[in-house]
Amino acid sequence: MKITFPHMGNLYIALKAVFEELGAEVIIPPKSNKETLELGTKYSPEGICIPFKLTLGNYIQSIEQGADTLFMWSGCDVCRIGYYQALHKDILKRLNYSIQLICVEPFKTIGEIYVFLQKLKTISADTSYLRLAAVFKKGVELIHKVDALDDLACRIRARAEEPHKVDEIYAAYEQNIMQSKGYQETNQVLERYRKKLSQIPCDSCKEIVKVGITGEIYTVVEPFINQDLIRRLGQMGVEVDCSVTASQFIREQIDFLPFISSEKGEVHRAAEPYLDREIGGHARHTIGNTVRFGEKNFDGVIHLMPFTCMPEIVAQSILPTIEREWELPVLKLVLDEMTGEAGILTRVEAFIDLLKRRRSE
Questions:
Q1: Is pLDDT of 83 > 80?
Q2: Was domain 2-123 assigned CATH 3.40.50?
Q3: Of 27, 61, 70, 328, whose CB neighbour count within 10 A is largest?
Q4: HEC per residue, 154-177
């Protein structure tokens, strides 16, 4: 079995280690790029969101490299991601690709975690359920450690005396991650580069602009689609707080377990005056987290969403009210295959200049 999965930020690091622990050969698609998007757009339905197009492009590139099994997640209530697996499978079949698709639904009960472990067993039939549960736990730990390292890089990049040092260390970290195999080696790489980032000299007196990022999870965590926004903001001296991450999403999926906690209740509390129910995707989180950024006195918020994403369109219509009531500037960016780097960066730079002027007044 040669298994692959679509890119979504750095989630590939934990998935790679988990499947290697199960003895599978892992085919990691090239990082999402222009060719990925062109491939996905060519074969996707007109009007579908850009995450669908990029994940399809990831699949095609991996299959061309020899992958025969595709791993995909589903769910998010009425978000169109629930249809991804069926549409992807149909498109790939019409392209004469013979593949096996393993699709994981969100967890809401112990029974659904057991169903997930059964699907993992198709990857490694001889592995016991106890071993599968242990590997699953290791994967969750890695997801949290990867996001913690990314958060550390964001904080240090904004304050570093030489911000380019962060990018140099991070590039070396990504190279070493690709060369590591399994949980132990991956964990060692994460710890080694966490220490290296922590040793970068920082300017403790530097005035920092704090910006929260909200929106649909794929557009927030995938650097190709958002023009590497988080790194670019750090280079501008901006500390970024991403409200939706893979680790946060996983915690919310399994917070019914007695030893797992999440901030879902707080997010829903903050969103309730404006949106008191789930409408799909991350719309409720967009509203709740924007309010929470206002409560924490952030300088501003950037809202990211794919073109045609209905849940985020609803959220976008509510944000002006929050912006007015909390006196919190919000920049709204809609992303698709026609989005240009120059246009996005011009708007972001103007927004940051606005926040700096507001802070100095």
A1: no
A2: yes
A3: 70
A4: HHHHHHECCHHHHHHHHHHHHHHH
